[in-house]
Amino acid sequence: MGRAKNSSEFSIFYLIASILTWILTVGWMLLIFYLSSENGSDSTMRSSEFVVYINQNFGIEITEMIVRKSTHIIEFTVLTLLTFLSIRFTNMISPHTAYSESPVKMIKSDNELYIALTLWFTVLFSVLDEYHQLFVTGRSGSILDVCIDLIGIVVMLLIIRLVFTLYLIKLGKSEVRYD
Length: 179
Fold this sequence. Notes:
This protein is mostly helical. It has one domain.
């Protein structure tokens, strides 16, 4: 269960993990798209109901704006994790799919490339999500919302980087770097 041992083998574990994480990633993207497709009044009603529930059941006074912006952060934090895992598992199916032969020499390891690709993918989706909202009745696209999405993206990428670094320290290894 891991990377293939010789060049003719591939890892069934990573193939299955890759398929499952890509299904989850696309499913999460569809959920974000669905929520963005709600017209303004439906979206406002959903947020208002959640605010009332939180205020009544937890005794916390929150506003609809806090709920809406927190939702942006949470949506893109989850999307970032799913995307990172999808890219990582896809790369690990076969030793021949390693990104180490990338022409981008600024990137020094597979992990850095996974992070860069995840950042690119999730920011692009955030921009497309806001663009899509320009065409939904009662909604508007906002650069500010892209920046709020970016908070969730960056926080998750920092957590991923920290976990990876701590894992390597625990193993007594250093990150494999390309020449």
